[in-house]
Design a protein that fits this description.
By secondary structure, the protein is α+β, with helices and mostly antiparallel strands. The chain has 2 domains: about 90 residues, 3-layer Sandwich (Rieske Iron-sulfur Protein); about 190 residues, Naphthalene 1,2-dioxygenase Alpha Subunit, Chain A, domain 1 (Alpha-Beta Complex). It has 5 helices and 16 strands. The longest helix has 26 residues. FE2/S2 (inorganic) cluster binds next to loops.
């Protein structure tokens, strides 16, 4: 099991008071109350029934569907459900498992809330380990062959600040093909980016240039293997109080659709990867560093498969 931040859901997936979700092998119940979303272990502490499958929310407890005990959502009572940290921002629901969550992710989302508008995006299920999906942001040599960008961005690891050991960041510059949203006279354009992982399952990428935006990519392991990718963006709010204009809406759609197309370019590679002992070269230094970062979140040795 890995600790740290995961995206457990989009808020729109929570249609009921109790929703089942899984963070890899950890089944959770998300509880929707009028003022917030909470996350608890789903296994009933009596004998393990899944509280989201037939359980009923009753005040500050869930009535278990198996033997009808009241499983308390607070600190008092014989049977209590263990609670996990939740960050609900812009239609995204993040859950922090165990330690290793105090790494500035909540502060970043807080800051973005002030200056940006969150656009909750799309989900995709892929047959690939979640940390490989996040690793993609740090794999500088795949961008040209897989995504057709015009250069091989040489990525530089951004030194972790004090108290920042539980994040991992790189920066670089992409040479991007012309897009309808950049006035470049049809020429490729240099776009700086900064990708920062907050766990093996969440990376936030700031893309600069003429129309800067922030991409939030989460990959949440599924219990039977593979993962669920959830992708969203945050765009500068520009002080707009009112509804976005039609042009802004088209731009958000373009960002999400082009990002989805980018992920779809990765999928055939991911889904046909064979397990080999990697033979890294010097350009893979950011991948190696990301792997070392991920190891900090592992709480027990993985079984060799
Ligand atoms: S398993 Fe939940 S009350 Fe028995
Ligand atoms: Fe990629």
């Amino acid at each position: 099991m890995e600790t740290g931040w995961y995206q457990a859901a989009f808020e729109r997936e929570l249609s009921d008071e109790l929703t089942a979700t899984d963070l890899g092998p950890v089944p959770l119940v998300l509880v929707r109350t009028p003022d917030r979303i909470r996350a608890f272990d789903a296994a009933c502490p009596h004998r393990g029934a899944h509280l989201a499958h037939g359980g009923k929310l009753d005040g500050a407890a869930i009535v278990c569907p198996f033997h009808g005990k009241r499983i308390q959502l607070g600190p008092v009572g014989r049977y209590r459900a263990r609670e996990h940290q939740v960050l609900g921002y812009g239609g995204m629901v993040f859950v922090g498992l165990g330690e290793h969550c105090d790494n500035g992710f909540a502060d970043l989302l807080d800051k973005l809330t002030v200056s940006h508008l969150f656009i909750p995006g799309f989900s995709l299920t892929v047959e690939m380990a979640a940390d490989w999906v996040i690793e993609n942001a740090f794999d500088g040599t795949h961008f040209r062959p897989v995504h057709g960008i015009g250069n091989e961005p040489s990525l530089e690891v951004v030194p972790a600040g004090l108290g920042d050991e539980l994040t991992f960041a790189v920066r670089g510059v992409f040479l991007l093909p012309p897009s309808p949203w950049r006035r470049t006279g049809g020429k490729p354009t240099e776009v700086p980016f900064l990708a920062k992982a907050f766990s093996p399952h969440v990376v936030v990428t700031e893309i600069g240039g003429q129309f800067p935006y922030t991409a939030i990519t989460a990959a949440t392991p599924l219990p039977a293997g593979g993962c669920r990718i959830r992708f969203s963006v945050a765009v500068l709010a520009d002080g707009q109080e009112s509804l976005p204009t039609e042009q802004a809406r088209r731009y958000y759609r373009y960002l999400l659709e082009s990002s989805r197309a980018g992920i779809e370019q990765d999928i055939p590679i991911w889904e046909h990867l064979r397990p080999v002992e990697p033979d890294y070269d010097s350009a893979d230094h950011t991948v190696i560093a990301f792997r070392e970062f991920c190891a900090k979140f592992r709480t027990e040795p993985r079984c060799a498969s």
